[in-house]
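Sequence in, structure out.
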Amino acid sequence: MTVLSTHSLSLRCGSRLLFDRLNLQVHAGEVWAVLGVSGQGKSALLRHLASLPMPAVFQVQGELNWRDKAPTSYHRAERAQMVAWMPQQDFQPFECTVAQRVLVGRYPHGSTLGWESREDLALLSEALEQVGLKGFESRVFQSLSGGEQRRVSMAAALVQQASLMLLDEPLSQLDWHHQVDLVRLFKPWAAKAGGAVVWVSHDPNMALQFSSHCLALMPSGEHLTGPVNLFRDAGVLSRVYDCAIGAVRPAHFYFPVADDYT
């Protein structure tokens, strides 16, 4: 089943072409990592895939479908149940507890005036345990560290039970232990939910280890898509990041090469 697809999708920021004629098909059970240098349109692409309003500076052309239908063909409640979007920063203007923040993800499934159901509370408890924050329900969200806040945001995406998760740098501000804990959730969740995950990463080693496919947006405006094995190549990654990349064999660990470093 095709969860997400684009046809001839192009994105410009002012006069600058970020990518052109992107044809993408994301199927159920797949985990796609989006790679590329900063400012190449990864976050803007994710925002468009979520069918959210774009800043005026961006011009988008092309077709976007969720399950073979345009997002606008779904009612707002259906759209909220289908897609969970985790932005780079989770800004909460008003003080709230961790439980309140996570349960926002259940809003599309309930009455606008109703209280949390037993199912909501069970999903809250399960999600917090999955992200390593069991017992944090009553903690004030704004009092947490940046990494802890990222994990709370991930828990909110999990309880939404959407068929498509769009995660913008979900591993930012996390130590290796918690990076691995989070990224290990992606493939089992996609397989269990019959959905898919698209996530932005600045760590190609994590992306290649825990994803099934990659989309790379290159500084030239070109793009490359395919299974992760296509990207297990120093030459390909050098094009993606516009710098020399070396590899440690046979583990497929890649690192930038600074020729002038002594």
